[in-house]
Amino acid sequence: MKEKLKDFIASFGLPRLIISGFLLALFILSPIVGADLPMQISNVINRFSWNAVLVLAMVPMVHSGCGLNFGLPLGIVAGLLGGTLSLEFGFTGPMSFLMAVIIATPFAMLFGGGYGWLLNRIKGGEMMIATYVGFSSVSFMCMMWLLLPYHKADMVWGLSGKGLRTTISLEGYYDKALSNFLQINIGKISIPVGALLLFAVLAFAMWAFLHTKTGTAMTAVGSNPTFAKAAGIQVDKIRMLSVMMSTWLGAVGILVYEQGFGFIQLYNAPFYMALPAVSAILIGGATVNKASIMNVILGTFLFQGIVTMTPTVMNNMIHMDMSEVIRMIASNGMILYALTRKTEVRR
Amino acid sequence: MSNISKPAGSRSVGKTVGSFLANNSVPIMFILICAVCIPLSGFSLDYLLNEIITRLGRNAFLILSLLIPIMAGMGLNFGMTLGAMAGEIALIFVSDWQIWGIPGVILAMIVSVPFSVLLGLFCGKIMNMAKGREMITSYIISFFINGVYQLIVLYMMGSVIPIAHSSIKLPRGYGIRNTVGLLNMRQCIDNLLAIRVGGVKIPALTLLIIVLMCLLIIWFRRTKLGQDMRAVGQDMQVARDAGIKVERTRIISIIISTVLAGFGMILYLQNIGNLSTYSAHSQVGMFCIAALLVGGASVDRASIGNVFLGVILFHLMFIVAPQAGAKITGDSMIGEYFRVFVSYGVITIALIMYEMKKRRQKANIGEQLALAQKEEVQHEQ
């Protein structure tokens, strides 16, 4: 029995166990300390629907052996370009969301292509370089947001009439475009079916893709590149494809996030957006070179659960909001734990 | 013969010039950027000299702390932020004890050592568990410890750890204020023995400390431990076969780096004159690493010369970019964003060049191995 327990802990991972236990404790504590539990559950589900696609963006690159996509901000930048351009071209309502995705796609393909080309040249050092590719692109776009000729009055600074604002309200555009679609309200719990549905479609497509011939080749490249090469798979091409997929999902992910959040955040906002997504998928049970759709769902739920529940429960319990600190320690601790596992294939 | 050797000679000169340009492309690019931006910014030479010397005194020590892990083959130590946090904790204590001036600075340095050693030990141990991806690991460690630092400084100081003076505490009774004034410590080392040449103030003592540190590093390279570190940096397996305790050596190199970063941060903050409790350390690693790389260092090779050239060029760019950007585009924010972009861009390019070089070397070794095998086969035939 003791052996079995040990095996379970070893396979599940101690940090994951602690985080799941912590979330469970939060759920149990929340009605006791007087927090509104249905409201909390509703919040967790909503935040899950905002973030799940961003976490899903990790999957292709992990599968092809490119490691965790710390370069997610590159995809986010593509998404931001799509979003702002869709507004600039005068689209409104849910249509603007669709157009944002369509406009973001070529950008994501272009950026992802270049990024994949680069990562093929530096195999083995992907994660560090991905981090800095993300940073460079975000800081480059900081200049571009000021310089690009945007003119729409509710996006640019009022005084000078040029340069985009740091936050742009999406009211009247694609604010809650997905969340309000088929929304179900049960008592206090509201379920954003539209957003969940989009995630389900994308997740299913990803699952289906990973079972096609190309998808299997991708997994082969990730688990053993030498073998894959010997089997006649074009390793570089497959890796490039995975990076492009990741980047595109990052672009769609940020648009889904924005429609839930209600604002476009520009300039420095995308800098650290990769870290929550990375730690979410790791909390869900993924490793540096293995990730499944289940990991995405479980991880997003656990991570967003902790992010949403801690502030309220903590505040009600000890009148002290330590959520930010706990989030930092838990999420970065999770990434550290994953990095120190000896799972990566030797190249 | 002579008419044949001549073109060959000039070709080799061309080759050396070419390789010189290739090896120093980053510093040369920065010299060009500065050459364009300085006249545009319209700053006087006196002002620029003054700023450069101030920033040299402020930053050089911090950047020196990066050299030893590079020597040990552990790449750019993004975990130097840990040392910076240790230095800040020490400064908070010292300013709570109301010990000012030079004794305060020295005491802060002494107090920072145990924190730095502990954090360095932690960082080194984790990095040993993640060999081959030290940089990303040290980078995430800095985020992780930043969380722990906030837990201690924001919640435990004043409630668990005694803090006597309410002037540095938040109004709620625990936690440290967003800024801790170090007015009584401000530039005490810089001003002692300061020399004025024309309008330029030279903080002689600070520069002397930096020079001493450089000599110490040069001496350290020649000691047994320093040689061991180089061996570990060259090839871990060979070093292990030679009887060097690889893991221990790596941990020591990180501990030294962290302790030096702590000292560097204290020197940095005594020059600034106040401590932004929650943000002072967040960018320090990035700027120091960018400066070192601008000076022509790479991930596996850095010298003291790189440190000084880097500080001067990087900070020259830093000073002139906002003004020059404002002149060109009419918006001062452009220059601000530009210099951040350049910092990140330089690090990105350096990392890419390093990885490509590593792959090329690996490919070369593979080719040589294949060639040797072929020859062997031919011999047998």
Q: What is the tally of helical segments of chain B?
A: 15
Low-confidence stretches of chain B: 1-8
Structural class of chain A: mainly alpha
Major sheet details of chain A: 2 strands, antiparallel
Please explain how this structure is put together.
The complex is a heterodimer of chains A (347) and B (381). By secondary structure, chain A is mainly α. Chain A has a domain at 54-271. Helices cover 69% and strands 3% of the residues of chain A. Chain A is built from 14 helices and four strands. In chain A, the strands form two sheets. In chain A, strands 1-4 form a two-stranded antiparallel sheet. In chain A, strands 2-3 form a two-stranded antiparallel ribbon. In chain A, helix 3 packs across helix 12 (274-283). The longest helix of chain A has 29 residues, at 93-121. Chain A is globular. The model of chain A has no long low-confidence stretch (mean pLDDT 85). Chain B is mainly alpha-helical and 381 residues long. Chain B has one domain (36-380). In chain B, 75% of the residues lie in helices and 3% in strands. Chain B has 15 helices and four strands. In chain B, the strands form two sheets. Chain B has a two-stranded antiparallel ribbon. In chain B, strand 2 and strand 3 (200-202) form a beta hairpin. In chain B, helix 2 packs across helix 14 (304-329). Chain B is globular and about 85 Å long. At the A-B interface, helix 7 and helix 14 of A face helix 7 and helix 15 of B.
